[in-house]
């Protein structure tokens, strides 16, 4: 008998077990999981694991996928159907399937996936008898935001915070009070002298494609661009501010944390760059 997985209410052959491409777990890492040991056919510490699962779900405001008793029943059934005596059962819950958009979707049911796998106790015991080696690595979970990774959970939570505050975007601020970038956009200001300022694209931000094109377009219009950090205070008192991304192009920012930027209206520099943007792009007919 082959392996069986549980996917959203159905027990299916492991090889055919699939989730939707727009599952939030797949798109955003917007999900949580638990792994329980199976020993002599019994689930080990299931109460503690489900306690932690519920805590993780609550922290992310993902609906509970069902009663504990129902989840436990499915875990036992997955173990039973896979004939696992020793090994583990894996349980994942994501926010669900919805059109790709960072903020939380409305009216979505959490997705539930469970799998089980056997593990040799003799092998683990032999390993324990010999002992194992470790190496050390910098704890960079996850400061590699320069990589356009799908680990977007912090971005999801930031975008949702913006929506709940009646804003379009959230700007991340580093430990020194400097703006890094938006949850899905790069951040810019225009100084009193008319200089564009955006953070240098090293490890602290994603090197936006739109950001690069805007820099080029600015150069052709004799607008100076300086790559340096700017503080929240500097942004609030800047002449203009704007964000860039492939989906927003150049979008003027008129308010930061409730404080009007400039005269509280989109400024000429941002609107000029927005109008000129497509002069600077590469076009490939679809
Ligand atoms: N920063 C982040 C975190 C983003 O997700 C995005 C958009 N994907 C950007 C910046 C802007 O990048 P681009 O101009 O390539 O769309």
From TrEMBL:
Q: Keywords of this protein's UniProt record, alphabetized?
A: Amino-acid biosynthesis, Branched-chain amino acid biosynthesis, Pyridoxal phosphate
Its UniProt pathway annotation is:
Amino-acid biosynthesis; L-leucine biosynthesis; L-leucine from 3-methyl-2-oxobutanoate: step 4/4; Amino-acid biosynthesis; L-isoleucine biosynthesis; L-isoleucine from 2-oxobutanoate: step 4/4; Amino-acid biosynthesis; L-valine biosynthesis; L-valine from pyruvate: step 4/4
Q: Per the UniProt entry, what is one GO biological process?
A: amino acid biosynthetic process
Q: Which Pfam families does the UniProt entry name for this protein?
A: Aminotran_4 (PF01063)
A Gene Ontology MF term for this entry? branched-chain-amino-acid transaminase activity
Task: Show the SUPFAM superfamilies listed in the entry.
Answer: D-aminoacid aminotransferase-like PLP-dependent enzymes
InterPro entries attached to this UniProt entry: Aminotrans_IV, Aminotransferase-like, BCAT-like_C, BCAT-like_N, Class-IV_PLP-Dep_Aminotrnsfr
Cofactor(s) named in the record = pyridoxal 5'-phosphate
Q: Which reaction does it catalyse?
A: L-leucine + 2-oxoglutarate = 4-methyl-2-oxopentanoate + L-glutamate; L-valine + 2-oxoglutarate = 3-methyl-2-oxobutanoate + L-glutamate; L-isoleucine + 2-oxoglutarate = (S)-3-methyl-2-oxopentanoate + L-glutamate
Statement: the UniProt record of this protein carries the keyword Mitochondrion: no
Gene3D superfamilies, alphabetized: 3.30.470.10, D-amino Acid Aminotransferase, subunit A, domain 2
Cellular component (GO) terms are:
cytosol
Q: What is its EC number?
A: 2.6.1.42
What this chain does, per the entry, is described as: Acts on leucine, isoleucine and valine.
What NCBIfam families does the annotation carry? PRK06680.1
Annotated family = Belongs to the class-IV pyridoxal-phosphate-dependent aminotransferase family.
The protein, known as? Probable branched-chain-amino-acid aminotransferase
